[in-house]
TrEMBL record:
<dbReference type="InterPro" id="IPR051907">
    <property type="entry name" value="DoxX-like_oxidoreductase"/>
</dbReference>
<keyword id="KW-0732">Signal</keyword>
<feature type="signal peptide">
    <location>
        <begin position="1"/>
        <end position="23"/>
    </location>
</feature>
<keyword id="KW-1003">Cell membrane</keyword>
<dbReference type="InterPro" id="IPR032808">
    <property type="entry name" value="DoxX"/>
</dbReference>
<protein>
    <submittedName>
        <fullName>RpiR family transcriptional regulator</fullName>
    </submittedName>
</protein>
<dbReference type="Pfam" id="PF07681">
    <property type="entry name" value="DoxX"/>
</dbReference>
<feature type="transmembrane region" description="Helical">
    <location>
        <begin position="107"/>
        <end position="123"/>
    </location>
</feature>
<feature type="transmembrane region" description="Helical">
    <location>
        <begin position="71"/>
        <end position="95"/>
    </location>
</feature>
<keyword id="KW-0472">Membrane</keyword>
<keyword id="KW-1133">Transmembrane helix</keyword>
<dbReference type="GO" id="GO:0005886">
    <property type="term" value="C:plasma membrane"/>
</dbReference>
<comment type="similarity">
    <text>Belongs to the DoxX family.</text>
</comment>
<keyword id="KW-0812">Transmembrane</keyword>
<feature type="transmembrane region" description="Helical">
    <location>
        <begin position="143"/>
        <end position="162"/>
    </location>
</feature>
């Protein structure tokens, strides 16, 4: 097996693993599959963590994960697929960031890993064992990489920034207690 064969096989495995996980997460949001809550339940959750409107946020995240994950697994439109999936994971990481890094404590480790893997695949390309290669890279051109990341970064910044402002504004209305409860007794 040549070095190029090993690289292509490695890229295929990365695409199938990350793309499959992303597609499954999106299917939970969109269809309620694999123990998910569908658009209704996910929409309610999205609202509770500051992504408003909830149903639209659930739909956008579900489409980015399902579509981006499926396309990554297939190796089709790899720059757009990877950028879309990375953007969705950036939004998820923003929710989990207050809990620290590790997933065990509710942190952003898993979202960051999937997002960085998707971004890495978008930049590296899908390899020869892909639909992009089979189709002559018609939707995997070099200029598509910065274009896909620029569009995704702009959209993600707007959505995550609006969420942060919404959460800050909600917190301004709360008053913190001056003393710990145990000292009040």
């Amino acid at each position: 097996m040549t070095r190029n064969d090993r690289r292509d096989l490695g890229l295929l495995l990365l695409r199938l693993g990350a793309g499959g996980a992303l597609a499954a997460h999106g299917a939970q949001k969109l269809f309620g599959w694999f123990g998910g809550h569908g658009i209704e339940g996910t929409g309610q959750f999205m609202e509770s963590v500051g992504y408003v409107p909830g149903k639209a946020s659930a739909t956008a995240a579900g489409l980015a994960e399902t579509g981006g994950g499926t396309l990554l697994a297939l190796g089709l439109a790899t720059p757009a697929a990877g950028a879309a999936a990375a953007g969705a994971m950036a939004g998820a990481a923003a929710v989990h960031a207050p809990n620290g890094f590790f997933n065990q404590g509710g942190g952003y480790e898993y979202a960051a890993t999937l997002g960085l893997t998707a971004a890495g695949l978008a930049v590296t390309g899908p390899g020869r064992l892909s639909l992009d290669h089979l189709l002559g890279h018609a939707v995997n051109r070099g200029w598509m990489i910065p274009a896909a990341f620029a569009a995704t970064a702009a959209g993600t910044a707007v959505v995550v920034g609006a969420r942060a402002r919404r959460l800050r504004k909600a917190k301004e209305g709360e008053q913190e207690s001056l003393f710990e409860e145990e000292y009040m007794e």
